Structures are given as structure tokens and as C-alpha cells.
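Summary for the steering committee. The consortium agreed at its last meeting that each partner would contribute one worked example illustrating the joint modelling workflow. Our contribution is presented below. We chose a case with several input lines so that the handling of multiple components could be demonstrated. No manual editing was applied between input and output; the record is shown as generated.
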Amino acid sequence: MSRTGWARWLVVVPMTLLALATIYPLIFTANVAMKTRREYILDRFSPAGVLHWENLATAWNSVGMARYVANSLVVVTSSVVLLLLIGSMAGFALSRLRFRGSGVIYLGCLAALFVPFQVIMVPLARIMGDAGLVDTYPGLVLVYVAQFLPFTVFLMTSYYRTIPPEIVDAARIDGNSVYGVYRRIMLPLGRPALLSVGILDALFCWNDVIISLLMMPSADHRTLMVGVTALRGQYSDDIPTFASGVLIAAVPVLAVYLFLQRQIADGVAAGSTKG
Amino acid sequence: MPLGQSSVRPVPTGRTDRARPGAPARRGDTRRRPASGGVRAERLAPYVLVGPAVAVVVLLRLYPLVLGVNFSFTGDGERNGTTVGLDNYLELFRDPLFRTALGNVGLLVLLLPVAVAIPGLLATFIHLRTPGHRFYRSVYFFPAVLSPVIVGAIFNLLLAYDGPLNAVLGGVGLSPVDWLGDPDVAMVTVVGVHVWATFGMGLVVFLAGFATLDSALLDAARVDGASLTQTIRHVIVPGLSRTIQFVTVTTMIGMLTSMFGLLYVMTAGGPEGSTYLPEYYIWIQQGQLNRPALASAASTVLFLIMLVVGLAQISLLRRAGKET
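What follows is the complete predicted structure of the assembly.
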């Protein structure tokens, strides 16, 4: 709707300002991370003259960030692999197989989608405690899988519904068992959906704090995001080092976003339009 | 894909062993073809495939919900395990912190239209091909992938009393605002940061909705010389009512359940308990104060709020959609 000049500017100027407001906080943080404490106190906005990369090393070494990153990587990778496996199996069965109870199971998954973690947090903590799984990697992985599985099943089911049933028929006629169809047909065909859902699941798990805080009480088992909260207490009077820690924690996600923003946005959009 | 959709409808029992939806009868002779397994294994296959998912969802999502409601009618501490009726609920509503939390939910409901309108308007502009729409799209979406902890930490720097935002305000002659220390301001600040971080999600969903909107309608509006506001009112809002509904409900759910990270990092419930939300209250009662039964009662209340808000919004929006 940019017919008249002033109307165009009425839209473009606020949109550009908003875009600036969206990126600037991160640029500010990156800039602060490159300053000395003295430079930060004297002038918060000026671009860092000499880049003090050593701040990153200080933050990295001080609170055991390496350990937190390793914890996060282990937990997120296992959770995503399990989510994609269990989710695609169920998605295939719910979309392309006929069996008694499939409707109820699909509805149950949909219902679970709308139960937020905070609502079931207390009893879940007790269940996991009774099972001896609190403060263990499998325990945290299991809770992540439970948390994001309904979403994964839902998206995989919608995706598999777009695959023509004739393909499944043909594979059956060729002598494949149901499992064979899953492994040789559905898994490879599902790759675009698995990629989108997998990235989203990975982001959810990587960004989480509340589940990790609840399930991993000991400092050794902290994930990266919980580690960032610890960083804050430690460097409350050393803002550049604190900003460096925040930057280190943000960079992996930013990198993923730069390379895979199409798939991330597609996954979010698919969750809203399908079903 | 109508063919695909029709084939997933439930079918009468007795054919449950077949993994070939819609297969015509003449293919019946291939029934026993699959080499491995045999008929019995084939019949069980769907259950084997959904089994893990069902086990996880039932044991770790649905069962805890029931357990929690049950739990909320028992006591804490010395009365652990005994039935106490509605005591937890009475205590909850007497607790000023929980009342603040509920009041803040009311604030979220009031701010909800803003949180939906921002991504909706931006998506409209982007869809109508403002110059640079691709750039805007990816910039606006990017905070949505950041962890609330990181967002909170960044805004802690920006909003500190002696921080950069107040320095800017001072530069133009305004007095500084205690963004996170003033009980009257802190909650609005945190919600503002949440909106900053999440409007990209709504934007992407709106754009997906626009993709399903009949572009002929927009062209017709343009030919008829409709203004932007007229186009929005008479073409976009009715055409996207389902999307608006979806964004409204998910934004509300997001506000009620995904601000924990921000609250934890930015205010820890303060100042003077002014930034409590039910989810934060549950966390404190369970994690810090060891009152799991009271926390369960709060969880049940949170669940009811979400149910009521969700259903109310759906019916309200459905009615609005019919009128236009």
C-alpha cells in the first residue's frame, strides 16, 4: 500500500526503527563484551577501540562454561534423537496406519500439547524422584522428551498426511513389512519435516531453564542456560565479563538461526496451519 | 491433498491389520506377502510404533496432571499425605503474593490485544510488500530463537538504573526510570521485554496465514481503491480470523507459561513481590519453600485459568468472526 509518498514513509520509518530496536540490544552486548571495565564505566555506547577478546576467555574459564556447554550438548542431542525417533514412528502410525484407538491416541497427544510444564511440574518432580532419575542425564532427557513429544508427534503426523498413501501401498506390495515401510520409505521421505521439527526441539531444549533447574540440582550437571544465571551472580560488578558470557551462550543459537532460519520459520508456521 | 486426508479416517474394525489405507480389494492377494513377521506381528505393528509415544505422554504428561489435582487436596509438611479438603486453596487466595500473581494475569489479559496487534500489523505490511520485507522478516524473528535467560540478561544490562536506557533518557532531559526496581513499573517492563522477544513468532504465524488468504480479494480491494484501514477491516481480519484466534490463544499461553526465564533472571519476583505470576509462584513454593501441595493447588488454578482464557477467547473470536 505504498501509493503515496508520505504513507510509505509512515510504514517504513517505524518498521526500520523497530528493526533497529530488535538488533541493537545484541550489538550493544557484543560491544560491551569487547571493552574493559573502565571503558564501560566511562562510556557505555562508544565502539570498543581495542577488542578485548580475553573477556571471552575469562568468562569461559571462570564458572565452568565448558562443562555446561558439554552438558547441554549431551542432553540436547539425546533428547532430539529420541524425540525424532519416537515422534516419527508415532506420526507414521497415526497418519498412515489404521488401528483401533488411533483417534483416541491422537486426541490424547493434542490434549497433552496444551498442558504446560508448570502445571505438572510438582507431581513430575515427585515421579522422577521416586524413579531415582533426578540429577541424572537420562532423567532430564526423559522430561525433555515428554515435554516436546506432543508437538513433535503432531507435526510429524500432519507432514506424513501430505505423503500420498499410494506410496505406502506400493511399498507394501513390494514386500515390505510395516517396519520396512517406516525405515525405507517414511523416514527418508520425512526428512524435511524431521529437520524442521528437530531444529525447533533442539532450540526448545537448549533454551530451557525451568526444566533443567528442576531436574538438575547439582552445579556439576547444570546446563548452559542455568550456567548463565550463575554467571550473573558472580560478575555483578564486572559487566564486560558478564556480557562476554552471555555472548558465548547466544552465539550457537545465532549461528543456527543464520544458517537455518527458513526451516525454523517453516516449522513454526506448520505448527499453526496444519491440523 | 484430499486423497491423503480421506484415507486417514477411521475404518470399521476387523481390517485393523492392514497398513494400506484405501487399498482396493483387488490387492487383497498381496496380504501375506510381507516376508518377515507374519500376520500377527503385522497387526501389532501400529501399536509397537505408537507405544513409546503413548507411554511417555501418558506417564509423564497426563498422569501427573491427575496426580497434581489429587495432590492439591492433601497437606504439606506435618500433614503430608493427609486429606485437607480445600485448605490449600483457601491459603492460596489469602496469600498476597498469589493475589499479586493473579492481578498480573489480569494485566497480561489487558496487554494481550497489543501483543497480537503488533505482529499482525507488521505481517500485514510485510505481506503487502513493503520495500525490504524479507530483511524485516528475518530481523524481527531473530529474538524468538534466543533463550529467555539470554534476553533477560541483555535487558538487565540495558535497563539497569545507571544503565544505557536511562542514560539516553537523561540525554534528552527526562528523569531516569527504575525499570526493574519500581513495583509499579517492573511488571510492565518484564511483559514489554517478553513482547520484544516473542512478537517474531506471531509474525511468522500471521505470514503463514496470509499465504492461505485469497490474493484475489486483496487485488479486488486495491482495484476498488480501498484504504489500508478498510482493507484490514473488511478483507484481512475476516479472512484471517482463524489465524488471529490461534495467535491470540498461543500468545496468552506464552505469557502465562514462558516468562519464567525472564522473571528468574530479571526480577526474581521482586520488587516487593510485584512481578509474580502463577508459574513463578509454583516454582517458589515447590523449589524454595518446600510446599508441594500448595504448589499443586496453584498449578491447578493456573490450569483452570488457561482453560477458561483459552475457551473464552475461542468463543469470543468465533462470534466476532461471524459478525464481520
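Chain A touches chain B through 109 residues (CB under 8 Å). Chain A has a mean pLDDT of 86.
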